[in-house]
């Protein structure tokens, strides 16, 4: 599956999210956390996925979900998240690699998380792998 | 002595944390999908998973990363983690347990760097299988 490298730079409109204490609690229950009232390290992935932004980015790039795997995730924590606070998320397609007839294409998406005063709170980077349907299955 | 203080006394290569996840069964994948909003049917619908070339549904990579994160948070406190990176090197079949481990790889004055991994333990003599590898940076300031 070829993904047009012109999508590099595609930005989902920035949006606000609340670090909702109930959602944090619910998420902690779901991952079997040892404590329920702290914002867990991977909760950023939930925040950045709000407004169905992940699905819409995948659709904008024309990716078939059956061909998609999340292969890498990187978080930088610059400031602790506070329960109940409002944050702004800005997601951008930073890179697309491997279009030239290879069996896999790698798409890097970056999310910047800021507070109202533009203070950078966290950075999240994910790499998605899109498998070419004509290529042999990944041995996993 | 806290785990963080102990970290300041260890040499690179030392084991610094280990924990086993709960069983990542279909109910847990469903609960994670609802709590995270990641409703990709690869994790929920066995027919879809087979169309994608797998035998059954597979665990969300982020559910595995959450298990590694829990190990870090429990050992060192999550406010101490300033970077956390994982690669999902193999799929995690539904019904797996993840054995998560961390080693000290490097220590400076202010920060320590850990090597991370999660394996699916082997059964019936089969070897364990690496599914997640990663790194974390831990803030040591005002400690040790």
Give the structure's gist in a few sentences.
The complex is a heterodimer of chains A (140) and B (144). Chain A is of the alpha+beta class and 140 residues long.
> Unreliable segments of chain A (pLDDT under 50, ≥5 consecutive)?
136-140
Q: How would you characterize the largest beta sheet of chain B?
A: 5 strands, antiparallel
- Secondary structure category of chain A: alpha+beta
CATH superfamily placement of chain B: Hotdog Thioesterase
Task: Return Rg of chain A in Å.
Answer: 16 Å
Strand order of the largest sheet of chain A: 1-3-4-5-2
Strand runs of chain B, count: 5
Strand order of the largest sheet of chain B: 1-3-4-5-2
How far apart are the first and last residues' alpha carbons of chain B, in Å?
9 Å
- Uncertain spans of chain B, ≥5 residues at pLDDT below 50? none
Work out the helix count of chain B.
4
Oligomer: heterodimer
Report helical residue fraction of chain B.
25-40%
Mean pLDDT of chain B: 95
CATH architectural arrangement of chain A: Roll
**Number of discrete domains of chain B:** 1
Radius of gyration of chain B: 17 Å
The helix count of chain A comes to 3
Can you walk me through this structure?
The complex is a heterodimer of chains A (140) and B (144). Chain A has helices at residues 21-31, 43-48, 53-60; strands at residues 11-18, 68-77, 86-97, 104-114, 120-131. Chain A has one domain (5-131): Thiol Ester Dehydrase, Chain A. Chain A starts with 10 loop residues before the first strand and ends in a 9-residue tail after the last strand. Chain A contains three helices and five strands. In chain A, strands 1-3-4-5-2 form a five-stranded antiparallel sheet. In chain A, 18% of the residues lie in helices and 38% in strands. The longest helix of chain A is centred in the N-terminal third of the chain and has 11 residues, at 21-31. In chain A, strand 3 (86-97) and strand 4 form a beta hairpin. By secondary structure, chain A is α+β, with helices and mostly antiparallel strands. A five-stranded antiparallel sheet of chain B has the order 1-3-4-5-2, covered by helices on one side. The N and C termini of chain B lie close together (9 Å). Chain B has one domain: Hotdog Thioesterase (Thiol Ester Dehydrase, Chain A), CATH 3.10.129.10. Chain B has 144 residues and is α+β, with helices and mostly antiparallel strands. The radius of gyration of chain B is 17 Å and the shape is elongated. In chain B, a hairpin with a 3-residue loop joins strand 3 (99-107) and strand 4. Chain B contains four helices and five strands, in the order H-E-H-H-H-E-E-E-E.
């Amino acid at each position: 599956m070829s993904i047009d490298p012109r999508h590099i730079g595609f930005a989902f409109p920035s949006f606000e999210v609340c670090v909702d204490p109930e959602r944090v609690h619910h998420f902690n229950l779901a991952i079997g956390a040892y404590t329920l009232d702290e914002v867990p390290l991977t909760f950023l992935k939930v925040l950045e996925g709000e407004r169905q932004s992940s699905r819409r980015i995948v659709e904008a790039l024309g990716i078939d979900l059956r061909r998609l795997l999340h292969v890498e995730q990187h978080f930088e924590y610059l400031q602790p998240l506070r329960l109940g606070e409002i944050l702004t998320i800005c997601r951008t397609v930073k890179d697309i690699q491997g279009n030239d007839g290879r069996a896999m294409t790698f798409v890097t998406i970056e999310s910047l998380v800021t507070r109202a005063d533009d203070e950078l709170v966290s950075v999240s980077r994910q790499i998605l792998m899109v498998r070419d349907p004509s290529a042999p299955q990944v041995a996993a | 002595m806290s785990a963080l203080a102990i970290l300041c006394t260890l040499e690179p290569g030392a084991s610094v944390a280990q924990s086993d996840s709960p069983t990542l069964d279909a109910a847990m994948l469903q609960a994670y999908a609802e709590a995270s909003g990641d409703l990709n049917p690869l994790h929920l619908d066995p027919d879809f998973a087979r169309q994608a070339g797998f035998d059954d549904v597979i665990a969300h990579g982020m559910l595995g990363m959450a298990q590694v994160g829990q190990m870090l948070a429990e050992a060192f406190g999550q406010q101490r983690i300033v970077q956390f990176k994982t690669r999902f090197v193999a799929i995690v079949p539904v019904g797996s347990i993840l054995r998560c481990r961390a080693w000290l790889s490097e220590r400076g004055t202010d920060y320590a760097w850990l090597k991370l991994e999660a394996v699916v333990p082997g059964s019936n003599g089969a070897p364990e299988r690496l599914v997640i590898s990663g790194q974390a940076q831990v803030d040591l300031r005002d400690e040790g």
